[in-house]
Amino acid sequence: MPRLSKVLLEAVTLMRRGAGRFLLLAVWAFVALVGKGRADIHPEWTQALAPFHIAGNLYYVGSADLASYLIVTPSGNILINSSLTSSPELIRASIEKLGFRFSDTRILLIGHAHYDHCAGSAEILRQTGAKYMVMDADVPVVESGGKVDFHYGSELDQRYSPAKVDRILHDGDEVLLGGAVLTAHKTAGHTRGTTTWTMDVTEAGKVLHVVIVGSPNVNSGYRLTGQHPSYPGIAADFAHGFAVLRSLPCDIFLGSHGAYFEMLAKLARLKAEGPGVFVDPVGYKSYIAEREATFNRELKRQTGGAIQEAH
Question: Element (H or E) spanning 201, and its range?
Answer without folding.
Answer: strand 195-203
